[in-house]
Amino acid sequence: MAFIDDNSGYMNRNIKQAKIKLTRVMLDQFIHYLLTDSEYIRDADVRNLKRMLDEINPEEVYTMAETNLKDKFKFLDLLTHIRIEQNITNKYQLMEYMHDHFMGIFSNDSLDDNIRVMNDYILRINQGYKLLDKRQIEHLNEYISDRLQYIDMYKNIDIYQEIYKDLNDPDINPTEIVGRYKNELITMTDNLKKVDRNSNGKKISILDLGEYDDAVKQVTEIADKLRSPSNHISSGFKLLDKMLGGGFEKSRQYVFLGPQKGFKSGLLLNLAINACIYNDKDNIDLVKPNARPVVVYMTMENTLDETLERIYSYMHGEELKHIDKDIKGSAIMEELYSTICTPHGIDLMIIYNGDTTVNTGFMEEVYDMLEENNKEPILFVQDYLARFNSINPASNKDIRIRYGAVSDEMSKFAKNKRIPLVTAAQMNRNGSKFIDDFRDMEKPDGLMGVQRQHVGDSSFIIDNADAVIAINREDYPERKLPARMTFKHIVARMGREDNVKYFSQDFDNLFKIATDAKPGDIPRGKEGTISSTMIQEQEQSNTVSNMAGLQTMYSSRSASTDIFANQANQQDLSQRLNMKGL
Prior knowledge:
Blueprint: H1 24-35, H2 43-54, H3 58-61, H4 67-85, H5 91-102, H6 108-126, H7 134-155, H8 157-167, H9 174-199, H10 212-227, E1 232-233, H11 238-243, E2 248-249, E3 253-258, H12 264-277, E4 292-299, H13 304-316, H14 329-341, E5 347-352, H15 361-372, E6 375-383, H16 399-417, E7 421-426, H17 429-440, H18 459-464, E8 467-476, E9 481-492, E10 502-506, E11 533-534, H19 547-555, H20 567-580
Helix pairs in contact: 1-4, 1-6, 2-4, 2-7, 5-6, 7-9, 8-9, 12-13
């Protein structure tokens, strides 16, 4: 099919053409697509778009009442041709060229509409807005790929009908059918695979240092992205941010491993609330500048009632059901909103799904729902990993394979959406027993001895996660030791700041873990008051009775990594040593 410059239409073909009609929204998106400079839009992708357009006859798919859509299609077709064949880099010159070309061909209203679409988008690009992100570009590339494959299949509809007819004819020998259609089926399959190969480039990122000009643009974009304050979300805990290399990084999956009753769900909710309070909307680079940033807390473990009660405990240290009945729900809501959402413009959305058959595809549903409501997730917190099934039913037959598949799917979700995803999982029996032995003897810092071998069934999870942190809540009131949350680095793909491998964080109340970041801090490079005791990890025996190893750890502290906020923390450490009899 060839484009005719005047208004006479398109050349006819003696082949079947699929009746694909592009909507106004899709046509405008492709105009934006062609005006976007991105590493995810390759020349091959633009050629695929042109091939798709060449296979559509607007004179047939658009009615007389849809003249404006027909014009917009032709506008897009020429713009695609120019992107491929001509080197017009100045977008305003390109817009002028398009205006002059269609002057007198389109009606004034139709021409003005298309030029306005270009002009508005170019203005917003020049103002620094990133209107098409990686995910949106990939969606458009997939749209093109799917339509091209559909077109190739539609062209062969007569062959498919003949095959169907012959397969249902008992008088035709199977060998004859295979011989008749085998080569044609191979050719059709090869064509579909070719479209896949041409489209899969969107999933492959290439940096060719030999192509200097292109490489400069990519390196600049990557460097700016990595150094941007919005690349990390603070956890609210200064030392956890350091352990994670600056906080929760975009496109990363984080797994906290803990024993039973190790406060896994509690930590996840603490982290979700902290993400709203200890980050600032102004430091977050949103894809849609007018969208409302939101932290998503997705629980399959606790109902909305239970979660709301925990949030109230976070704020007041008492359960909601015990407060004065005269306090109205509106007053409670006002306090929740003013405490969590108002200070820094970040919302908290709580989603409960009690369906035991739900799979990781639910995250996509939630993301789409948020997008429709003009909310942009900056962090996903899911409680907890074992509650998800894999999208692939075959992976759900074995629990270890299921955990690995779920972790892999969660990791892909984080990368595709460019947001951090935080979840939790259970330690294996060895790890839980190791912690329980310390609990039984009411000895602190049992988590120090936990190693990778204590995660057992979770090894499939570790292979896919970007960072795995072991956690445990310690609470020995009879020994007059304050409750605290302990963190132990197991594995991470990113580096640690100040080589933080182990630390503990006290509790402010029964539910809230004490925070030490400053509200609105940029995670990397800021120093606030640290109220935690951080102990440099040393090699130690996994035998619970080897207390000499613990004594060595406490006595050989490094000045560079052993941080005490004040004299009270030093006294607290001495008290713990005395309780151990050291």
